[in-house]
Amino acid sequence: MTATLERPVSGPRGRTTVRVGPVSVLLRWRQLLVPLIALVVLVLVSAVSIGRGDYPVAIPDVLRTLAGLGEGPQNFIVLQLRAPRVIVGLLVGLALGVAGALFQTFARNPLASPDTLGITVGASVGAVAALVLTGGSSVGALLGGFGVPLAALSGALVTGLLLFLLAWRAGVDGYRLVLVGIALWSVGSALVDWLLTNAQVYDAAAAYVWITGSLNARTWDQAVPLAIALAVLVPLSLAAGRALNVLQFGDDTARGLGLRLAGAQTAVVLLAVALTAAAVSAAGPITFVALVVPQVAVRLTGGSRPPLLASGLLGAVLVVSADLVTRTALPEALPVGIITAVIGAPYLLWLLVRGRRQFT
């Protein structure tokens, strides 16, 4: 049995049919090229970010050290002081990019993301409660014992469960999911404001830094659990690609094509919530990454829905690049969430204006 490559006689350019015996696969080269370029850019940006600091390290030396060939102080600076921060940012961007692509494909709405659906604000409720209620009360002691990351993880998962249950009506409709998510976001924001209003000044200051989204002081303690979680969640998300291809055409079409709609919808929502919860628990709610990146990815690849792998890699590039900007291009270091918000807020306004024009 031999494999042959042949370009289709008719159809859009940039596609190649690969046939192995009776099996044929249609390759879209843009959908392969964009992730590859994003991966190369990610490696370079990460190396530059690790190399910048009070003790500069050249990019070849950074790559050599990461490959296990470093020595002396350079090995300590790269592997212990700087690499964990960059790796956490990379993994957080990857998780948020994939989660955003899952939500937007499922809801068939470019406004659907963990930010607008209330998942990140649910994590903020848990984290702020753990920071603010660590006084003498028994509730505060309990939350403080769990720690801020675990409290944020719990808040995100509880909000995701509420989102799923409230949006469920013999299935999960994308439009209803967005409406319920906006309502949960409003409730969560009110709870965060109430907690901050009743907090001590120093507790409120720490909470404000966390809810902005920051990579400061990140270590392997955050990087390793996040990497383990994504090693499970990202392959499962990629395996859901076939179901996503069907779900984008609507519930009736999905049923007609034989898809088990309720099971597929449940799996997609749970994967997106779990990815968001893992990311937020490690670095706080870095906003707008999951909103912007999938739409950029779908335009670069020219597909019919946000591609998962390209969205994840571009999300990682955005977060690592934003962190590099905060540390090198600004007079003083800012939380990375501020930079992503500056990028994402105008994009959200553009989406809203475009949607209004389409309806009018």
From TrEMBL:
It is a multi-pass membrane protein. The keyword Ligase does not apply. InterPro entries: ABC_BtuC-like, ABC_transptr_permease_BtuC. It is found in: Cell membrane. One of its GO terms (cellular component) is plasma membrane. GO terms for molecular function: transmembrane transporter activity. Keywords: Cell membrane, Membrane, Transmembrane, Transmembrane helix, Transport. GO terms for biological process: siderophore-iron import into cell. Its main location: membrane. The chain crosses the membrane at residues 32-50, 86-107, 119-143, 150-168, 174-196, 223-244, 264-293, 334-353. Signal peptide: none annotated. It holds the Pfam family FecCD. Belongs to the binding-protein-dependent transport system permease family. FecCD subfamily. This is Iron complex transport system permease protein. The lineage of its organism: Bacteria, Bacillati, Actinomycetota, Actinomycetes, Geodermatophilales.
